[in-house]
Amino acid sequence: MGKDKSEETMVSVKDRTMCEATQQMLEKARRDGVKLDLDRGYEMKPCPIGVESACCKHCYMGPCRLNPRDPYKKVGVCGATIDTIMARNFARNVAAGSASHNDHGRHILGLFRGIIDGKIKEFAIEDTIKLEKVAKSIGIETEGKEVLAVAKELCDELEKTFSNVDGEMPFVKRAPKATQELWRKDGIMPRGAMVEVMEMMSRTHIGCDQDYNNLTKQISRTALADGWGGSMVATELSDIMFGTPSPTLADVNMGVLKEDHVNVIVHGHEPAMFEGMLAAVSDSFFIEEAKAKGAKGINLVGMCCSGAEMMSRHGIPHAGNFGSTEAIMVTGAVDAMVVDIQCIKQGLAEVARCYDTHLITTNPRCHIEGATHIEFEEHDPRKCTDQILSKAIARFGSRKLPIEIPRQVQTGVHGFTHEYIEYMLGGTFRGSYSPLNDNIINGRIRGVAGVVGCTNPKVKQDSVHIALVKELIKNDVLVLQTGCSQISLAKAGLLVPEAAPLAGPGLSEVCETVGMPPVLGLGSCVDNTRILIAASAMVEAGGLGNSIADLPVAGCAPEWMSEKALAIGQYFVASGVYTVFGIGFPSIKDTKFHNLLFDGLEKQGYGKWGTAADPIEIARMMIAHIDKKRKELGIDKVRERTLVDMSDRRELAS
Ligand code: NFS
């Protein structure tokens, strides 16, 4: 571990991350001569043409590079214009993001089928109430039928999400009628995810679809096949198999590691392996084995999205988001870092090697050079989990490096769902979204924002998430969160009812009355579909228009980095939501394609994209959109009165 010569040029750790625990580990890594992603991100100088999506490598006549400062001056060798090139690049990003979520959803469906067929005995159907509700929501008759019969019908129906070659995906029925009609009118109703992704790849081949307008339609269709397809299947079936979350207290940040325990981290996206680990760590055999090596027990914690899911369902501690996955191994206290699929940096392998940590891949779709591969099989989870635990316990017993665990831990409330929001605001017997709508109509809540997505070493980790969310709640915007963004705010202490005073007068009043935080954590990235269902329920409850596009809502991924984030953004836009991305956006301002995404789609009845780097500017854009929608709904005047008239507000509170 020699000293790196670029060390002197590095910025302070305080400029790389807001997370004090991650700062401490970045500092230690620098001392140890280990390079982390947070510094690699700072040192990488992105290609100025690629960053604006002005290059094309879809064939070998190029790669063609257009001039981002004068994008219409030149075309590619085949004649492709800048709009075609940007649209095709964006299309392939969305196809990859949608494919990832659909791949996840398809494997969850496979697990569900295995349980129904009796081939998988280690998992079961946990939540039969949710099973019935989901089945009914897509028109399956449940009356008088056995649980397994309903499950089988649901499984057969949801298979179409992936395999349909024509017709409509099952879950699109859950969108408001007007939203569905718009999709049908424009020919973007998703059929099956496989066909949408395949067609997107085919249409973006050299010499095929070369009209950015037509390409954008298939981009929306492919994205909708994610949000109303594979992602929604993943969320709903995971709830049915592992239990629908309800609010639970959980600890977040690196302080959840325990020096005197065997520490096992699970990081990734599919819940089955993590659920298998949870069962294995409570086996007395392994607890005794750990004790025999001098440990007090086994400490299982999560990271990233599967961590967020397990925290929501079971209150499992969460050690940090995407920006901290390399840094946490610098503690020396991680005995095994166990991963499955997605958002798993290859850099983990080198950091694991430096700190003598086991990096264990478990999924046939994700091996990493230098990692140990122990495959997880759903019909026999213990074969994998037991080998992992044996390795982790042995590593504990032979720890040689000094251990340094940051002390930061923040307790918060996690595990909200669209079902729980309905119950929380409407009560057990009259569960409904009407009270939420009423509070929006009367102006106490100005609107609802979804703030989600990754962290990105291009910006100071967590900083944009935290500043944005604080600004939104200060302006009476209720914030729904998922994924790494939820973890950023959890670390900042906003996922507790005690954070209500940070909200504006209207929102804090609602939070105090109900006893809820101003920021509600909904789980992992596939759980963004809970926001789609909540938005549809708001339309159905009445008083806020006919489609999702009418609602005073907005979305944001302030520190995005992945293709999955682009797919999510596009399915929100195509569902009617104004969606702002921080950091930057892969298109050139004032080109035809950019103008279509950032303006034209809204005129066609959809949502639209926005982008800005500064969190206060992002908040201003989102709030301006919410206020525009309030005006169109004719509820802007109520809010003005509510905010200026204190006695009126006191009366409302009584
Ligand atoms: Ni979603 Fe971003 Fe990854 Fe999860 Fe985190 S980085 S797009 S939030 S872990 S998927």
How would you characterize the overall build of this protein?
By secondary structure, the protein is of the alpha/beta class. The protein folds into three domains: 64-242, Substrate Binding Domain Of Dnak, Chain:A, Domain 2 (Up-down Bundle), CATH 1.20.1270.30; 248-397, Rossmann fold, CATH 3.40.50; 416-633, Rossmann fold. It is 48% helix and 9% strand. It contains 25 helices and 15 strands. The protein has helices at 13-16, 20-32, 37-43, 82-117, 128-137, 147-163, 177-185, 193-203, 212-242, 271-281, 284-292, 304-314, 347-354, 381-397, 418-426, 434-441, 463-474, 483-491, 505-514, 528-541, 563-575, 592-603, 615-633, 636-644, 646-653; strands spanning 55-56, 64-65, 248-252, 262-267, 298-303, 336-339, 358-361, 372-373, 410-414, 447-451, 477-481, 519-521, 553-557, 578-581, 609-611. β10, α17 (463-474) and β11 form a beta-alpha-beta unit. The structure holds FE(4)-NI(1)-S(5) cluster. FE(4)-NI(1)-S(5) cluster (NFS) binds at residues 304-305, 321-322, 342-343, 453-454, 483-484, 525, 562, 564-565. The site of FE(4)-NI(1)-S(5) cluster has 14 residues, from α12, α18 and α21.
Secondary structure: elements and pairs:
Blueprint: H1 13-16, H2 20-32, H3 37-43, E1 55-56, E2 64-65, H4 82-117, H5 128-137, H6 147-163, H7 177-185, H8 193-203, H9 212-242, E3 248-252, E4 262-267, H10 271-281, H11 284-292, E5 298-303, H12 304-314, E6 336-339, H13 347-354, E7 358-361, E8 372-373, H14 381-397, E9 410-414, H15 418-426, H16 434-441, E10 447-451, H17 463-474, E11 477-481, H18 483-491, H19 505-514, E12 519-521, H20 528-541, E13 553-557, H21 563-575, E14 578-581, H22 592-603, E15 609-611, H23 615-633, H24 636-644, H25 646-653
Parallel strand pairs: 4-5, 4-6, 6-7, 7-8, 10-11, 10-13, 11-12, 13-14, 14-15
Antiparallel strand pairs: 1-2, 3-9
Helix pairs in contact: 4-6, 4-8, 4-9, 4-21, 5-6, 5-9, 8-9, 9-20, 9-21, 10-14, 17-23
The structure holds FE(4)-NI(1)-S(5) cluster.
